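Worked problem 6 (solution included).
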Amino acid sequence: MRVLAVLALLAAAPIFAAEPDAPPTAKIVPFSETLHSTVISDPYRWMEAGGEDYQTWLRGQADYARDWLDRLPRRAEMLAGIERRSSAAASLREVQLRGDLIFMERREPRAQTARLYARAVAGGPERLLFDPATLDTTEAPNHAINYWEAGPGGRHVYLGVSPGGSERATLRVIDVASGRLLPEQVPLAMFNYSPEVLGGIYPQWLPDGSGFFYNRLREGAVPDTPQFFLNSRLFLHRIGTPVTSDVLIMNSGHDPAVPVVDIAIPFAVAQPGSRYAALLLPEGVARSMPLYLAPLDVALTGHAAWKQVTRMEDQVEGYALAGDRLYLLRRDRPRGHVLLTSAASPSLADAREVVAEGEAVIERIISTADGIYLVERAASGFALRLLRSDGSIVPVPLPFEGASYFLFGSPERRGLVFSLENDVTPRGRFLAEGGAVRDLGIAPAPPFLTDAYLSQTVSITARDGTRVPVTIVRRRDTPRDGKRPVLLDAYGAYGFNADPVFNPRIFALLDAGALYAVAHVRGGGEFGNAWWLAGKGPTKPNTWRDAIDSARWLIDNGWTSRGRIALWGTSAGGIMVGRGVTEEPALWAAGIASVGAMNALRFEFTPNGQTNIPEFGTVADEAGFRALLAMDAYQAIRDGLAYPPMLLTAGANDPRVIAWQPGKFAARLQAATRGGPVLFKVDYGAGHGLGSSSAQLDADAADVAAFTLWAASRADQAAGRAHPTAAASIAVAAPRRR
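Solution. The predicted structure is:
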């Protein structure tokens, strides 16, 4: 009965009160170039240079999209349902144990950003350590914490804080006892990669907590230029000393025996209980890395004789120091295995295998006082095992199936703190110690019950016979009637998994009778490096074709029908959306690309482009050019076709996907399509999504949900035109394009 009521609401939704004005038309400046004997036409290349015409067009697009989206029949309903579930709840992110303290990053109910708290592990009152809003000014508003870590003993915390979603983090230090921010500030300490990349590229504490290694961009680095992220440098900072006295540890040319390419991101690690420091030189977003070792006391001087242990081609993607032992996670086998060598005289050739390749994908290795925790992805999701110093391996039982996005452990103490969640189970916080797990009891409960929802994963057969997992999240009472609106999400890049996440902002859409589905397309890492390489470079078409085949499975198995599925992707997932829509435009109700990379041929010429060449390739060589051309959604647009409605977004402060990437696609599609509309929403107070306020995230989710429902309802309109009696009950209409 509940779903029938929902459908009645959909049928009775009002039309737009008034038709929004047309979006501004982008000027066309003819431009072409010949690359590897192929002529490339790029009439919106002028946008890349910025300028007044571009900024005027951007603001006009932003105003039009906002006006259009605000008039959607169900947007207010979606926003109210989202706010009731997300903003009204506390949200706990990172949790760390240091000394006798537990540190927590938490967003309180109705708060816009997360704050940092501390309390005794044994219990007692919490203390607010840092509120980023205290740094807000008119010139630099909406500060957010990008990354942080408590030091050994819990005496200090470093954190990177940036304004307006820009991720241009300034590194600060808090004295925990007094709660004061210390005077030292390091600008452009930006690198805060996710844990999937080398365990996270963050500043690294010294074992005694007296300072930390950190990476910062070169002096004079200019935002929004292709050189912005190049030639970054590694320094050592001592607490309480001026930044000007920091010791240069590594950059290009610092040590002739250590080659550092311009896209390398040098960082160093020192662990409690070990006499050695590790120097790592990941090249952009590449997963493997050169690794060097040196005695820690010499490394601190900036003049160590670093001994090379691994090279890029060795496919070592993770490391852990435990005293005089060096553990290496190697991916020369698809699911990975772990090797052990001596830190005193390291040798990859002589390293001994201590964890063989198994059915699960080994994703990370983390050193703690009770051993090396193996963070794995099994068929059922996240899995943990403990490798003890005697070589034995102990499975760690988990309280439920799910994924973990926040893990923290250190050789300073026993145990691993980890999060666990799935699509319909809220995020919990647990401590694994030895073979046992206990709930820390600090995770806030959501303000709504989740028993009415379920998640199931099916295996569909792609066109080439490959089995691709698809996760479907829905209300238990949602009928399989072939009419469900579907929001189909996919990513497929960098070997990152599309693992389940408890997202309170999706449940309002589910209550409207829709499905939320995730296609675990190739290019991700669900089944190890082989799955990643099957959607990378020349094999990238598998990424969007897996999404297309997932949509067809949902149709063929009675969940929905053509014209009711909105394809959604974020960031590198924009490639998947753009090419999925341009290859099969008639399949979709809509395409939604959030801060999406839409012009692959020109991505290496963006501020974040050079560092991404290892993942996507370069136009400098013909094979790379051919692969990039195939994945370029902007170049794939053809005049006169009826493309589905599109919602494209950009953050004006985005350092990862600059706004002209989706902007050029929007301009070209607006000029070419017989369908539409094409909305280009530009947020001038946001970046790539990191650091966005709760209100911004709620509003974005409401836009996606309402746009999905509106676009899917057009299939009912089409049916109504074929059956006049049905037409009388359908009152949702699109504004006419002018």
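Discussion: The chain has a mean pLDDT of 91.
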